[in-house]
Design goal:
globular; alpha+beta; 6-stranded antiparallel beta sheet; 6 helices; 8-stranded mixed beta sheet; about 25% helix; about 325 residues
């Protein structure tokens, strides 16, 4: 058994002494007044489900407000979109303040009283794997943030990110990165390549994300409907194992990932909701899906010297495809 002295934790200072809240055993922790939270804080200024901390597969910690009544703050600044946490940050929920500590990024002593973990350490391992990458971005977020009251904006975005994480997990992936008002998710494919089941899971997840976004628009007084754009790309990438023991954490880097971001950006230029990379579309054709209803476009992806082919369409096109080809349970956005 190996005792880890670099476990991330939250520090709560009370009248009776310091309380250490280790961030272990999961990649997601909720904070609030109700008993169903990972960290229950008895502060009447804190909402029942106030905020969420998530550790992505790059070992970055994000703090996400879940639409709390009185807001979540990092070093005195209100959280509206996911905020990357740094060692020593002060987090405020209601009238309760905690310190975030990630000892692996600090110098000096990293001891945490009575916090142990029995997972064995592993070194970072990079392998070449076939993956599909999805990037989802909230459209016109900067305009929305200027027009909306800060509390409403926090509630809208917090709800969207919470539901997005649930949907992506149901579809067999996870949120690998938060990039401002966007999320990135990865699906790994086996040696046999892309399967029909994997295609359906990805597309059902995208459809559920769109429906969830539309539903949120109806719940809040927004100046315009909330919309998202989607880029999906398939190919080989270098995959890094940044985890430990029997719970490895993976992230991917390379041109396949970069192209997914560029494809999402292209959807704004060609006025479509979803853009698929050429390889993704070819895999669909090889699986027998000849008619997805997407049109071919010649696009200039950021960072590429030559033009590429992309296949783009609307969420209506996607739903029509799913009605014809999908079987089994749909993916929903409920908690």
């Amino acid at each position: 058994m190996v005792t880890l002295r670099s476990t991330p934790y939250l520090l709560l200072t009370t009248e009776t002494g310091n309380r250490y809240l280790p961030l272990v055993g999961s990649n997601c922790w909720t904070v609030g007044r109700s008993d169903d939270n990972n960290f229950v804080l008895s502060d009447r200024w804190i909402s029942r489900n106030h905020a969420m901390l998530q550790c992505t597969n790059t070992a970055d910690f994000y703090l996400i407000d879940l639409g709390s009544r009185n807001g979540t703050f990092v070093n005195g600044r209100r959280v509206s979109i996911p905020v990357t946490l740094r060692n020593g940050d002060h987090l405020t929920f209601g009238q309760t303040e905690l310190e975030f500590h990630c000892p692996s990024t600090r110098t000096g002593s990293t001891d945490i009283p009575e916090v142990e973990d029995n997972e064995t350490l592993t070194s970072t391992l990079h392998v070449r794997r076939m993956i599909s990458v999805m990037v989802i971005d909230i459209r016109n977020f900067s305009v929305l943030s200027r027009k909306l009251d800060e509390k409403i904006l926090s509630a809208v975005i917090g709800t969207w990110f919470r539901y997005s994480g649930n949907i992506i997990r149901q579809s067999g992936s996870w949120v690998d990165k938060y990039i401002g008002d966007a999320v990135m998710a990865i699906w790994f494919h086996g040696p046999e390549g892309v399967t029909k089941e994997e295609v359906m899971k990805i597309f059902q997840g995208v459809s559920a994300l769109h429906k969830m976004t539309s539903a949120i628009s109806e719940q809040y007084p927004l100046p315009f409907p909330l919309r998202i754009g989607t880029g999906i790309n398939t190919g080989y990438a270098m995959v890094g194992n940044t985890g430990s023991g029997d719970r490895p954490d993976y992230t991917a880097i390379g041109d396949t990932v970069n192209a997914a971001f560029a494809l999402e950006s292209v959807t704004k230029q060609i006025r479509r909701d979803i853009a698929l990379g050429e390889d993704t579309y070819n895999y669909l054709s090889n699986l027998g899906y000849q008619e997805i209803g997407f049109e071919q476009y010649k696009v200039n992806l950021k960072g590429r010297e030559s033009s590429d082919l992309a296949y783009a369409g609307t969420y209506t096109d996607l739903d029509n495809f799913l009605r014809i080809h999908a079987s089994g349970e749909e993916i929903h956005y409920q908690d």
